[in-house]
């Protein structure tokens, strides 16, 4: 039976440290979250981030814009936040409405305030690292950073392991694969339509599921004792499910993260950690 890795507990240790550091600062770090549209899940995420900021003493500003907001108007709002001295980190909640180009918007955020590390300059900066990246002092995408911290919180050694990442998005799959490689894993990246997906995932000492398809990963796809990280978020009615068949896979895996309560809390903790890091860099 797998050890269930509680992201709430691990993230609380991180946020407690952040709260202590912020309490000693004369100037409080500031985070602005921009949400365009009325997607219910996005509103839940944004409210959770705002609450987390308040809990650790980070100044939070929530900017809610209608779904009809033009791309130019959104870029103007980002420009104002770039120039706002009270704001250290800017997060544009994705996805954006179809009429707004995400790449254009993400590139408009000042790289020095790009809290989720999605600006092309920041992506290039961390992806050109050849030495092992120090998670504590490096600006990295929040969810992938949280995944690595969650794995390493157990004392599990990533170096030399075979890792299979199912999901190739620029938000989660690709940066997670890079960070695993940076820590010495041999990484295979798959997606939901990969031929022989079962056989590929079975080779993994570490299996990361980040597609957004309920029960995509089943027990017969998991190597005995594997470390399984479920990043999927699938809302069905009032319930949230991951990409992994949790009950059955738990009987095979060595470690497994639940949904909810696994990676999600770590993502928010990394958002706070990155905000603090940006504040320290801009106001040394």
Q: Could you say how many structural domains there are in total?
A: 2
- Which series of helices and strands comes N to C? EHEHEHEHHHEHEHEEEEHEH
**Total of helices:** 10
Please summarize the sheet with the most strands.
Answer: 6 strands, parallel
The geometry reads as globular
The pLDDT mean sits at 97
Uncertain runs are: none
**For the largest beta sheet, what order do the strands appear in spatially?**
1-11-8-7-5-6
Query: What is the first-to-last residue Cα distance?
Result: 47 Å
Q: What is the number of strand segments?
A: 11
Highest-level CATH class of the largest domain: Alpha Beta
CATH-level-4 superfamily name of the largest domain: NAD(P)-binding Rossmann-like Domain
Helix content: 25-40%
CATH topology of the largest domain: Rossmann fold
Residue share in β-strands: 15-25%
Q: Which radius of gyration do the C-alpha atoms yield?
A: 19 Å
Broad structural category? alpha/beta
CATH architecture of the largest domain: 3-Layer(aba) Sandwich
In short:
This protein is an alpha/beta fold. It is built from 10 helices and 11 strands.
Task: Tell me what the structure shows.
By secondary structure, the chain is an alpha/beta fold. The chain folds into 2 domains: 26-113, Rossmann fold; 140-264, NAD(P)-binding Rossmann-like Domain (Rossmann fold, 3-Layer(aba) Sandwich). It has helices spanning 7-23, 40-56, 71-83, 102-108, 120-127, 142-152, 173-182, 197-202, 246-249, 263-282; strands at 3-4, 30-36, 59-65, 89-92, 162-166, 186-190, 206-209, 227-230, 234-236, 239-241, 255-256. The strands form 3 sheets. It has a 6-stranded parallel β-sheet with strand order 1-11-8-7-5-6. It has a 3-stranded parallel β-sheet with strand order 3-2-4, with helices on both faces. A two-stranded antiparallel sheet has the order 9-10. Strand 9 and strand 10 (239-241) form a beta hairpin. It starts with a strand and ends with a helix. The mean pLDDT is 97.
């Amino acid at each position: 039976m797998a050890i269930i890795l509680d992201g709430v507990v691990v993230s609380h240790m991180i946020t407690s440290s952040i709260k202590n550091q912020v309490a000693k600062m004369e100037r409080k770090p500031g985070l602005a979250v921009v949400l365009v549209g009325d997607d219910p899940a996005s509103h839940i995420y944004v409210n959770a981030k705002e609450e987390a900021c308040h809990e650790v003493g980070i100044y939070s500003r929530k900017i809610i814009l209608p779904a009809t907001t033009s791309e130019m108007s959104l870029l103007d709002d980002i420009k104002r936040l770039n120039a706002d001295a009270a704001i250290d980190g800017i997060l544009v909640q994705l996805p954006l409405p179809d009429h707004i180009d995400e790449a254009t918007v993400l590139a408009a955020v000042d790289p020095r305030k790009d809290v989720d590390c999605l600006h092309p300059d920041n992506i290039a900066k961390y992806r050109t690292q050849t030495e092992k990246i120090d998670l504590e002092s490096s600006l990295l995408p929040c969810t992938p950073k949280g995944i690595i911290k969650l794995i390493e919180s157990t004392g599990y050694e990533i170096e030399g392991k075979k890792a299979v990442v199912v999901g190739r998005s620029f938000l989660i799959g690709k940066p997670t694969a890079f960070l695993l490689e940076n820590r010495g894993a041999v990484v295979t990246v798959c997606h939901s339509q990969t031929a022989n997906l079962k056989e590929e995932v079975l080779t993994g000492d570490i299996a990361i599921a980040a597609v957004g398809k309920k029960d995509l990963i089943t027990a017969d796809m998991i190597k005995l004792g594997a470390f399984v990280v479920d990043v999927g978020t699938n809302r069905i009615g009032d319930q949230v499910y991951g990409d992994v068949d949790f009950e059955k896979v738990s009987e095979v895996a060595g470690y497994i993260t639940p949904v909810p309560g696994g990676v999600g809390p770590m993502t928010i903790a990394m958002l706070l950690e990155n905000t603090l890091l940006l504040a320290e860099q801009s106001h040394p």
